[in-house]
Amino acid sequence: ARGGAVAAGRPGAAPRPPADGPVDVGGGLVGAVSGTDSVTQIPMRYEGALYRTPQGFRPADLLLASSVPAADSTFREQVSLLALRDSARLNLPDTTEFTFKPYKVHFTADYVARPSVGFFRDNFGQGFFGGSAVSLSDMLGNHNLTFAGFINGRIDESQIVAAYTNLTKRVAWTVGLQQNPLFFFQPSSIQPGRTPTEQVFVQRLRRLIFRSAFARAAYPLTRFARLEAGLSLTSLDDGELQIRQPYSTVTGLPTAFATQERVTLATRNYATPSVAAVFDNTLFGIVGPWMGRRARVEWSRAVGDWQYDQVNVDLRRYDGFIGPATIATRAYFLGRSGRDSNLFPMFIGFPELLRGYTSGSFFRNECVLEREPNSPSGCPSVDQLIGNSTMVANVELRMPLNYITRSNLVPSGLPPIEVAAFYDVGVAFNSWDQLRWRREPGDNPFVVRAPLQSVGASLRLNMLGFAVLRFDLAFPLNRPGFGNILLFSIGPTF
Predict the structure, then answer these.
(1) Contact, 221 vs 228, CB < 8 A?
(2) Residues 89/79, Cβ–Cβ less than 8 Å
(3) Half-sphere exposure of residue 291, counting CA atoms within 13 Å on the CB side?
(4) What distance in Å separates the CA atoms of residue 207 and residue 243, rounded to the nearest whole number?
(5) Is pLDDT above 70 for 412?
(6) Contacts of 197 (CB under 8 A, 6+ apart)
(7) Is 42:58 a contact under the CB 8 Å cutoff?
(8) What digits encode the pLDDT tens for the residues 235-270?
(9) I need a surface site. Which of 20, 303, 386, 480 has the fewest CB within 10 A?
């Protein structure tokens, strides 16, 4: 007691009210009381919670010894782990009385992505878009379920995934179903119209819908290295959307409304086994990795209606430079070979690979070179970014601005920011192309491929952990007469 009397009552008698505060005789009191109890004999004044016992009132944080007569009861000790461990009167529960029941898996939601819904209308039609995702697991986290669905206009072109992951054994495995649409432009053409002065401009949008059942397994070799194996059974729906716009060859104006026609090309079925070796000991910073190594070497093969081999090599490392600055490097190769490898052209002009060469940034004057009848894009400058194999290398010098906010150069209220200087180099090629470091005047751009380069600066912002916003100011070195381009993208750095 802190000095003060505790209002208490004797067995069989109603408790006396304190002199300067009420007493909750129903089980407790919080406040200050004063008085004298003939049983506890705590003098003066006490402030705290009280409990009523057969022997009288006692403070809630003190234990009344029950092994002594009521007349001699005193508050011997304070309740604590040390008292419970050392006290012979306060034994732990008897484990022989415990009951054991088998563990039952019960799934509860870990998180639910914020649902979105909307309506759009553009040159390709109109429809709804939106979706959501949910992840569930059991109490131990050994069993996981993932469901996600997104629609962008049409239900048959929606993106859907449902997967189950089991982590109970050393070999972790996943099975699931998914549907993934892929859209890309095909070369446009001009067809005869209904009259001699009318022609039809035809735009083609290729659509591939992959419907797959997959299974994957991972076996850890060390804390940072593992082996992976997988098998995917895929049914592919191949189609094309043709947008036909009639126009007058005399005036150049439309002669009728544009029409759309859906053409079903084929349905193909194939299986894809794969194996991979993975290493990853990176540590992430505010917008991406800043220390460690990452590597992935993967081989897969498609058998069935489509046949090709694919090799993917992705090597990354992050080395300290000066203070918090980091040098990030990446060497990336993705190549296909085989009978149907040319059916899957790849484009490297994305901000994630080669900055400064996005397809929408090429002007008409950059597409005036000699044209090829089988040009995939209709623009030779864009064709050099397309091939069934790609090689890309990136170097960045990164500096988080959070470390220099003390110098008042950056306001402290801004979100975490990182700045970087970068150098990108990459080349896309086909199996029949010739690779050279530099293309000489007179070389056929459809046969001779040379690496494309760019330099620039980047600004990255972490928006409260919700998304990473990236702004890249790129200066492409292989686009004569072109200055710079500002790129915006969302996602962590490589």
Answers:
(1) no
(2) no
(3) 8
(4) 13
(5) no
(6) 248, 249, 250
(7) no
(8) 999 888 888 889 888 888 888 888 888 888 888 999
(9) 480
